[in-house]
Write a structure and sequence with these properties.
The complex is a heterodimer.
Chain A lengths: L17 H5 L4 H29 L10 H37 L7 H23 L22 H28 L12 H33 L12 H35 L6 H15 L14 H29 L8 H24 L1 H7 L3 H31 L5 H27 L14 H31 L13 H4 L32
Chain B lengths: L1 H10 L16 H36 L1 H8 L4 H26 L3 H31 L15 H37 L9 H25 L3 H9 L1
The chains are: A mainly alpha, B mainly alpha.
Chain lengths: 538, 235
């Protein structure tokens, strides 16, 4: 039954016009605003990636110059890290779903929430301006002296963009943390919280504690570049390795800003589509916090070949192995949840299966890089590139898409085509593995990252990788097509199309009411009581 | 906003809401708790923000103790000391302003707030003269930096961190004074009651935080190896 008019008042139709969106304080609308900007950033980042992969189909540097190539991979990295991966789940799904899930009318500071979006957009525009004025060639890590004395590209503008966007992340983390502490509905105790909320909370901790450090670091780099202070310049008594320490003190925990929220979304989807309580709920909840805490103690594994002492390298190697424990707790508990579950083969679950497989490979190859001896061989090779793409794209983006497909009916009130979504999950899975699988081998064989020419013997694997990229591109494009199509022609979803537990499914409509709930919800049971409700399907 | 919130509350059928209660909170108490927690979390982010610079300070102080002692002696301990006293006094007046708001004495609140702002501005004026003197002496890092001591490069790093830390602190002071101006205006209009004076209290937290940062910066920058240095100069 396709209807063109939504018959009742909801958050999408209770106000109209551009101003009602740009001045909204509604967390649900702000989530949609983030979705739009992040989608644009993802599209741009993907274009830059396509440029990189096209250049690498041949061993010669025949498509772009070395400088342009540097700018392409830098633009790809900056766009994807700061404007896609960091906001993608917390700012989109977190904003939309978290207050609903805890039974709040809104986040604690709605105006600050809107401000965060504007700050994010301003940072994004500065970065776009840097690209338009000729790009930046330092790599997304801004290592000195690339960024201080050795580059004549738009380092300042890009740095400013990243600096500004960082404050958006800080404010969002602060807002969510206070919301989860102070805005829970009566009866919504900590151990009745959905695991997505636990993940968002752990993420907020990292955002609040880590992001200010990268902000001040980028500021120091900018001052160094503009005025030649010498803080990071060994000729003037400074230490470039200090920059790397400060940078990774944030940027390694930032990996957990990117992966923890998708992990939370995975827990929601896996419980719903296995029709079971999540196995070992409290272990999964605390593993999020453990990842957030351990995440702050491993940054120097990025510096194993930068001249740190063997003693500290050993400590950081050990701690890096330790992060695998809470990550493994999650993975084992998800598979234990599947065990003897009534698995419902619908599109969100397809993305979950993709996530678990790819995250597993990404996580285990991380242990290779945490090993001191192996890292000397693999450092700055394509092995590293493949490893973090398995975590970031195979993990974070797949997890985001699982969550997006799960909550899409709630966000829009419409269903998308399950067949098309399943096909697209499959395409992305195949395309992804074809793109990044060969890169593990390339890296092991010694192909360094960030070069636009390479010896002939690496060509076959590079061509495979580039071919995979085109399948990946088709998969993502298909996702965009059927999701947008569903906005206009999708079936009406009804309040709870997945028969899921949770306040957002059971206590409000799809799309939700402007102020979320008609009556304040009161919670009397845990988050995943699928068995109690007799909600077996399929 | 307060009017809108009140109208909204009526629409929901509740009654006798405080005009400051925003629609998404159930009670003033919940709203106050949220603001307080939010402010403390914000101050934690501030600690981390200064923390990056302090990390650099720590590293180079350990590496270059001689240069640190030499460069630190070039700072004006009298002006720095006066400023320390000024800020401690301003923390006292700020605390009194919060107390006055809590007990509902509007006139007192306004007076203590104005006094706090005056002390904050005093600090900034003194800081301006300190900075100006450094510019005259060309002890500002950059292409024109001049240093006649033993360790010119390392001294430049010291002054980079000096200007970075105190500059960031001064920026926070400027934001603080601006914030207090708004709060004073609100207090003068009688917006605060003993039931709701959250903005005064939050500005107070911020103000005390900025003061505490200075309490760390003063010894770290002005008092490095001072006794030893003075003894050397004395000889």
């Amino acid at each position: 039954m396709t209807t063109t008019v939504l018959p009742r008042v909801n958050y999408l139709n209770h106000e109209h016009g551009v101003a009602s969106w740009l001045l909204t304080k509604d967390h649900k609308r702000i989530g949609i605003l983030y979705l739009i900007v992040v989608a644009v950033a993802f599209f741009l980042g993907a274009i830059f990636a396509a440029g990189v992969r096209m250049e690498l189909t041949t061993p010669q540097g025949d498509l772009v110059s070395a400088d342009t190539y540097n700018k392409l991979f830098t633009a790809h990295g900056v766009m994807m890290v700061f404007f896609v991966l960091i906001p993608v789940v917390p700012a989109i799904l977190g904003n939309f779903a978290m207050p609903l899930m805890i039974g709040a009318k809104d986040v604690a500071f709605p105006k600050l929430n809107l401000l965060s979006w504007y700050v994010f957009v301003i940072g994004f525009l500065f970065t776009i301006a840097a690209l338009i004025f000729g790009g930046v060639d330092t790599g997304w890590t801004f290592y000195t002296p690339y960024s201080s004395t050795a580059s004549n590209s738009n380092v300042m503008l890009t740095g400013l963009g990243v600096f500004i966007a960082g404050f958006s992340s800080i404010l969002t983390g602060l807002n969510f943390m206070v919301t989860i502490h102070r805005m829970r509905a009566p009866g919504m105790t900590w151990f009745r919280l959905p695991l997505f909320v636990w993940a968002i909370y752990a993420t907020a901790l990292v955002q609040v504690l880590g992001t200010p450090v990268v902000a001040i670091t980028v500021l120091m780099m900018a001052l160094e570049r503009a005025l030649g202070f010498g803080i990071f310049d060994p000729r003037l008594g400074g230490d470039p390795v200090l920059f790397q320490h400060l940078f990774w003190f944030y940027s390694h925990p930032a990996v957990y800003i990117m992966i923890l929220p998708p992990m939370g979304a995975i827990s929601e989807v896996i419980a719903c589509f296995s029709r079971k309580n999540v196995f070992g709920y409290s272990f999964v909840a605390f593993s999020s916090l453990a990842i957030a805490v351990f995440g702050f103690l491993v940054w120097a594994h990025h510096l194993f070949v930068a001249g740190i002492s063997p003693y500290s390298a050993m400590v950081f190697s050990f701690l890096s192995f330790a992060v695998a424990i809470p990550s493994a707790v999650k993975t084992f508990n998800w598979t234990a949840t599947l065990y003897q579950g009534a698995i419902w083969w619908r599109a969100p679950m397809m993305w979950v299966f993709g996530f678990i497989g790819l995250f597993l490979i990404g996580g285990l190859t991380g242990l290779f890089l945490a090993s001191l001896g192996l890292d000397v061989h693999l450092h700055d090779t394509y092995f590293v590139v493949a490893h973090f793409h398995y975590i970031m794209v195979g993990g974070a983006i797949m997890g985001f898409l699982a969550g997006l497909h799960f909550w899409w009916p709630k966000m829009t009130g419409r269903m998308y085509s399950d067949g098309a979504a399943t096909l697209s999950a499959l395409l992305v899975f195949v395309g992804f593995n074809l793109t990044f699988g060969p890169q593990f081998i390339l890296g092991y064989l010694g192909m360094p990252r960030r070069y636009h020419v390479y010896p002939d013997e690496y060509q076959v694997l590079n061509v495979l990788s580039s071919a995979g990229t085109s399948i990946l591109g088709v998969g993502y494009t298909l996702t965009a097509v059927y999701l947008i199509y569903s906005l206009f022609r999708g079936e009406r979803a009804g309040a709870n199309p997945w028969l899921a537990t949770g306040l957002e499914w059971n206590n409000t409509d799809s799309p939700p009411l402007p102020h979320n709930f008609s009556d304040l919800p009161v919670v009397s049971e845990g988050a995943y009581e699928y068995s109690k409700r007799g909600m077996k399907v399929a | 906003m307060p009017n809108g919130a009140a109208a909204h509350a009526d629409h929901h059928g509740h009654h006798a809401h405080h005009p400051a209660l925003q629609h998404h909170f159930e009670s003033l108490e919940q709203q106050h708790e949220a603001s307080t927690l939010g402010m403390w979390v914000f101050l934690v982010t501030e600690v981390m923000f200064f923390g990056g610079l302090l990390m650099a300070y720590l590293l180079y102080r350990v590496w270059y103790p001689g240069a640190w002692a030499e460069a630190s002696l070039a700072l004006d301990i009298v002006l720095g000391g006066i400023n320390t006293a000024v800020l401690i006094a301003s923390s006292f007046t700020m605390a009194m302003a919060v107390r006055a708001a809590q007990t509902g004495r509007h006139q007192h609140t306004v007076r203590w707030l104005i006094l706090t702002m005056a002390l904050g501005l005093t600090f900034l004026v003194i800081k301006y003269f300190e900075y100006a003197h450094k510019f005259e002496l060309r002890e500002v890092p950059g292409p024109d930096f001049e240093w006649h001591g033993q360790f010119p490069y390392q001294a430049q790093i010291f002054f980079s961190l000096y200007f970075g830390l105190t500059g960031l602190h001064a920026l926070h002071m400027i934001i603080g004074v601006t914030l207090l101006a708004v709060i004073t205006w609100m207090a003068a209009k009688g917006r605060f009651t003993p039931e709701w004076y959250t903005p005064v209290e939050m500005s107070g937290l911020y103000w005390h935080f900025v003061d505490i940062v200075w309490i760390f910066l003063f010894p770290l920058l002005y008092l490095v190896d001072r006794a030893h240095g003075v003894a050397q100069v004395g000889v």
